[in-house]
Amino acid sequence: MVAVHVSNSLSSEIKPPKPTIKLEFMGPKPNPDGTCPVQTASALSGEKLLRNIMLDNKIELYAAYGKVMNCGGGGSCGTCIVEVIHGKELLNERTATEQRYLKKKPDSWRLACQTIVGNKENSGKVVIQRLPQWKK
After folding, report:
1. What is the pLDDT of residues 60-86, one digit of tens each?
2. Closest among 18, 20, 17, 16 to 90, alpha carbons compared
3. What is the pTM of this model?
4. 40 with 22: CB under 8 angstroms?
């Protein structure tokens, strides 16, 4: 005979969903009709760098430089600049590396390789302008 344990508490078996950050990435140049191309992605809060989310979802990050010339996410080249249009409060503060590379740039500009999306507790939506240096 096999003993089977049945739990009377459903709440102990159901885990709440992990907080998620939804992201929209606006293209650097408008479409012929004037609309801006948008790509979307999502990530668990506090678990990934913006750079990795973009690369995992095949969202262009380095087009301004032709071939992919970058430091591999080490924060030593400054080629992964993005602009945070909405949701700045869902990202970490600028790092010392960003302070150095972006000291003469708008506060909304970030290095994707230094930007953590979420803090493991928050959720919401972040809108990112790719390649802000291309905006005219």
Report:
1. 887 666 555 678 888 888 889 999 999
2. 20
3. 0.82
4. yes
